[in-house]
Amino acid sequence: MEILAGGATDTGRVRSTNEDAFLVDAELGLFAVADGMGGHAAGEVASHLALETLHAHVSAASERPAEEVLAEGIRAASTAIVEHARADRSKSQMGTTVTALLVRGDRATLGHVGDSRLYRVRWGEVDKLTQDHTAAAELVRAGAISEADAPAHPWAHILSRVVGREGPLDVEVATIALAPGDRFLLCSDGFSDSLSDPRWLADLEPTAPDVAARLLVARAVELDGRDNATAVVVVVGAAESRRERRSSWKRLRTLVSEALDELLEE
Ligand code: CA
Asked: Which of 4, 36, 72, 249 could pair with 47 as two cysteines, CB 3.0-4.6 Å apart?
């Protein structure tokens, strides 16, 4: 199946650095976001190092089962970060989330650690395909707090699994069958905290993925902007028609002019 994809990231309106990173390799069928942490520029190093390591691993292992390849690639990323941190004490606290999607033929496999997310839009329905690996989400799964209480819980942003810690790493993996027209969104928490209602993604059909990613990130920053925001949009199926592309640009122009009007009014 033909795959189209695009990504966008924004530092936001408060932070001075962008610790998020994203990866789009449509030829390989690999898409990912990583949200780094650790201070002293360590978060940026961790997220980029993780995606470079994952990309190299998947590129070199094209014949092997996708779930194995992604789990091993994310574990290799973790080891690379641990080794980098050992060599540079100022980066001892660095780590990252990784959420990746590997598309092969008519199947897609996800590999995931942390609180970045993968959503799928199919026939207008939006489904979250990953679990959040946060302490608060673990409490929800244990039945100790309700799902509605999780976002405001003090542990909402404490990761229960991190890429870049010593010891065994449990990578969440799953494989799903693709249907023509499926859209996927990979995003960092700076994005999902801001655009928490997943319907916005369905609203953007049939916008071209690169335009959709930029629109969504611009919207997320406009609504919140306290954290770095990143989105990768992957579309399965036929190429976008010329007419659809024109309408995508029209939407982008409208959004930009609305944002400008708002700024001028302030
Ligand atoms: Ca973040």
From this structure: 36
